[in-house]
Amino acid sequence: MSDSEPDEEILSLLRQSLGISDASSSKAPNTEVLEGAQHVYHNSIDVALDTYGTKTAAAQIWSLMQEKSYSFKTWSEHSLHPRGKDEATVNFIFLMDLLNFCFWSESSDPHQRYAVEYQGQRWTGYWSLVAAIHRAVEEDIPITTPSFWTNYTECTHDLLKHVFRSATPELIPLIDERIACIREAGRILVEDFNGSVPQLIQQAKQSATALVNLLVINFPCFKDIATFESRSIHFYKRAQIFVADLWACFEGQNYGCFHDIDTITMFADYRIPQMLHSLGCLRYSPSLESRIRNLKELESGGSWEVQLRGCSIWCVELIRKEILRQYPKAEINAILIDFFLYDTMKEREVEAVETIPHHRTRSIWY
């Protein structure tokens, strides 16, 4: 394709985000995440789904969710998640999901791993990011304000490193990449959306699909796409989780109101495949399993990594369908299953009952 020729994939996404029908297709606009995941599943040779394990897991997951009264309201029960229902909360969530990637440490000593001290406690993993944002806000650093991200005089590189400072010798992983994401997002929000995340959300017209596509079209750091067996595979982990977090935080109202929220898939990261394997839903080839168990890094965008992510998305979709088959009146979607599996996996990590390590990949995508 020459420089003068339009990128048809980007044009198609732009049409979808603006609610313009694509004359070349009679299908309803979507992110194509699920279709890509199905393609990966059908062509995967190193990751397989166990049908019996998936059906058994579906029953177990639904039973435990019912036992715990698990719903989108559970999101706000986490002590660090913001509880406000205003624009400040929207900005907080945007920054949180802009930087929601790659928290794993190469250190085997938990006391050496990156951690944030906040409210008399040390927070690790994803929660270290959330704690760091809260801490900065309480230190009167306008870290959740997009226009501040573009102010190189006040929002210096050193200040941003201070915001994410660690209580241990280890720095937050990919600190330079995180700062680059902040700068890029700030510039785009200021130039194209008057520095307003709510304005970005409003352009989606209460469509989860449209908001995901708007993020992917406008922000390169959200364009989580790989290639597998000659096909472009959309994952869009952080774009989708932004929509999901809005939905959960605002309980389906105001900024979290989306008429098509159930089109969002699970968020392909390194924790959910680990949980699905532990539940007997996923099986790995000996070579892949050996690499994971030996804590060897997988290439971002490589075949093994794409198979893990794609098959996990498809697996959660099958779990969702199985729950609805067994319990037709169940109010369930892939978001809730993902949230539940992630929370459960973190509980197992604390209790030291992990049956297999998570796979290791360094990237800004998850």
Give the gist of this structure.
By secondary structure, the protein is mostly helical. It has helices at 8-17, 33-43, 51-67, 87-98, 126-138, 146-149, 157-163, 175-193, 197-203, 208-218, 237-249, 272-278, 286-293, 303-326, 334-350, and strands spanning 47-49, 116-118, 121-123, 225-228, 231-234, 282-284.
Write structural notes for this entry.
The structure is a single chain. The chain is mainly alpha-helical. The protein is 49% helix and 5% strand. It has 15 helices and six strands. The chain has helices at residues 8-17, 33-43, 51-67, 87-98, 126-138, 146-149, 157-163, 175-193, 197-203, 208-218, 237-249, 272-278, 286-293, 303-326, 334-350, and strands spanning 47-49, 116-118, 121-123, 225-228, 231-234, 282-284. The longest helix has 24 residues, at 303-326. It has a two-stranded antiparallel ribbon.
Count the beta strands. Answer: 6
Alpha carbon gap, first and last residue: 30 Å
- Unreliable spans: 20-26
Q: Average pLDDT across residues?
A: 93
What is the N-to-C succession of helices and strands? HHEHHEEHHHHHHEEHHEHHH
Q: What percentage of residues falls in helices of 4 or more residues?
A: 40-55%
User: How many whole angstroms does the radius of gyration measure?
Assistant: 20 Å
Largest sheet, strands/sense/barrel? 2 strands, antiparallel
- Give the amount of beta strand, in percent: 5-15%
Give the strand line-up of the largest sheet: 1-6
Note the overall shape: globular
Structural class by sheet pairing and helices? mainly alpha
Enumerate how many helices there are, as a single number.
15
